[in-house]
From TrEMBL:
Keywords: Methyltransferase, Transferase. InterPro entries: SAM-dependent_MTases_sf. Coiled coil: none annotated. This is Class I SAM-dependent methyltransferase. The keyword Methyltransferase applies. Gene3D superfamilies: Vaccinia Virus protein VP39 (3.40.50.150). GO terms for molecular function: methyltransferase activity. CDD domains: AdoMet_MTases (cd02440). GO terms for biological process: methylation.
Amino acid sequence: MMEWVDWSNALERAVCWLDDVHWQISRGDDLQLALESLFRGLTLLHRKWDREEWTRFCLEIVRTHPLREVIHQCPYTRHGFEKPRGYAGDAVLIDYLYEEHQGPLSPMGRDIYHFLWNQSGPRSVRERRELLAQEIDATAERVHQPRILSVACGHLREAEHSRAVAEGHVGDFIAFDQDPDSLEVVAQQHPSHLVRPVCGTVRSILMGKTSFPEMDLIYSAGLYDYLSEAVASRLTRLLFGMLRPGGRLLVGNFATRTPDAGYLEAFMDWWLLYRDENQVRAFASEINPEEIASVEQFRDSVQNVIYMVLTRR
């Protein structure tokens, strides 16, 4: 497939390939087959080309190609590209991956969105929501009225799937995020004040201006994909230091070779930092090993997200 990816004129050939995909869609060919070809091709190019060549392809070729306007009929893709809240991966975008959007869409936009919703990356996001809900419930079974902190919480949809939250078995649940609009949604979804929205930045934690001591569970599953190694390590140390003995810190990061990466970068201008197990394990490098009771690492069922759980001694 696409044997030209290593040729000297690969970028020129890529334009012809996009032309072909656009022509297939425009003439009413099987949309599913065309999208599968596009998705597989972008995955291959993302893995084969060096960073400079791939970035040039995304910024100079895809952005000006007529196929982009067709693909952007998908509301999820268009929202990701336009970034109406000023940053990538906002909570509204993630909501597109939880439940299929039912608003007014063109037939083409609906079909593209449905195709993407069923890819492995969105499946990992939905599985992440369930994993976090299970972690909240397990903490409530382990500790009476636990203190829980979600960092970069977004809309905190996992709390809506938690039995412990629904039954009031959580003592203090802090939803921490920089986006006041996201926190307004959290407050509306949890009017009993069991969940406490707190507006603030990761920078304030890194600078020592914000801290939440004596926590039983701290998690941040969608933040680390944007952090440099140095920031990720420092933040992990500071969050770990907020735990009580026996408390758990859970973090996640999308893994290298995640198949959705090519599409996210080319058509959504959504650039994550993908890592392997050793790089995720290095998040704990600034913590005194004697303070760590255990380290767990695992991937989700489709192998896209690497999780690490640190338990404090």
